[in-house]
Amino acid sequence: MYQIIDGKKISQEIKDEMREKAAALKEQGTERCLAVIQVGADPASSVYVRNKKKACEYVGIRSLSYELPEETREEELLGIIGELNGREDVNGILVQLPLPAHINEDRVLLSIAPEKDVDGFHPVSVGNLSIGRPGFLSCTPAGVIQLLKRSGISIEGKECVVLGRSNIVGKPMAMLLLRENGTVTVCHSRTKNLKEVTKRADILVVAVGRPKMVDESYVKDGAVVVDVGIHRNEENKLCGDVDFDSVAPKTSYITPVPGGVGPMTIAMLMANCVEGLSD
Ligand code: NDP
Question: Ligand 1: which of 11, 169, 192 to mutate, most ligand atoms within 8 Å of CB?
Fold first, then answer.
């Protein structure tokens, strides 16, 4: 019988721990502050931004909100980030992606001071992760590690397969599993004999961006399966990259969608804001 990894419960635990830490810091005279910048009014981005602000309120982090119009020029945005970089009272800066097409995302992410890069997307943060120096960890993959650890699943020595190699999920996920002493394989659209590779996994993390692509034929008996994907199906219901109904009975542990990896991203953002650079 498989066990469900409860991301809702674990993310709540983390937010509660961060709330305690933020309160203790406040007592010592330090208040954490996150600046959230949104350009344009993309409805999905607005929901994410609102949820991030709500989480800040719960944890006790002050949040500064910049809601900029769609036509904001790149220089204006870079100017605001530059000012926030220099403010001592601001310790985290987050630019909600995607940005409008006329703004160069790379230039914007590069302009955030690495010591305030709470999303962990800056090349300095990515580099620090790769060579084992303290730095901010990308929130979604860091959340996956917490889901595994807090469910009592050991990573050391395990065959870990990551399906997907994006900069925000697949690659940092692989680095984090490696840091936890897993034996890591990364698969992507050019991988040959994909199912043979994924079937080797003791721990399979799926971030492929294709609704329900991974069915039971990709999974070894007793594997741990983590589904990072989020999609809305034809009935407007949420589903993941994994076909939960066919895969779950083969697993020892599995994350559901919703209620698995999803809530962890914001919890880890809160952890980055409160704890600062992790090592
Ligand atoms: P991307 O589209 O950036 O990356 C998808 C990866 O999957 C690529 O590396 C691609 O390979 C690979 N891939 C695509 N099709 C196949 C295939 N048929 N066989 C093998 N590999 C394939 O997605 P993201 O990493 O940004 O996101 C992945 C999923 O996670 C999405 O559903 C997204 O919505 C979700 N997500 C969830 C978050 C959360 O908070 N829970 C946060 C971020 C993302 P190649 O590189 O060769 O093109």
Answer: 169
Intra-chain end-to-end CA distance of the chain, in Å: 36
CA–centroid distance, 156 to ligand 1, in Å, is 25
- Out of 191-195, 221-225, 233-237, least confident range: 233-237
Rounded CA separation 13/19 (Å): 10
How many A from CA of 209 to the centre of ligand 1? Answer: 4
Tokens describing residue 46: 């607005």
Centroid of ligand 1 to alpha carbon of 206 (angstroms): 8
Model pTM?
0.97
Which residues are 238's β-sheet partners? 232
Query: According to the CATH classification, is domain 139-262 in 3.40.50.720?
Result: yes
Percent of the chain with pLDDT over 70: 99
Which residues are part of the catalytic machinery?
52, 96, 119
pLDDT in tens, 21-75: 999 999 999 999 999 999 999 999 999 999 999 999 999 999 999 999 999 999 9
Which superfamily does CATH assign the domain made up of 29-121 to?
Answer: Leucine Dehydrogenase, chain A, domain 1 (3.40.50.10860)
Residues of the chain with CATH 3.40.50.10860: 29-121
* 55-77 as b/e: b if 16+ CB within 10 A: bbebbbbbbbebebeeebebeeb
Residues with CB under 6 A from ligand 1: 140, 164-166, 168-170, 187-191, 194, 207-210, 228-231, 241, 261-262, 265
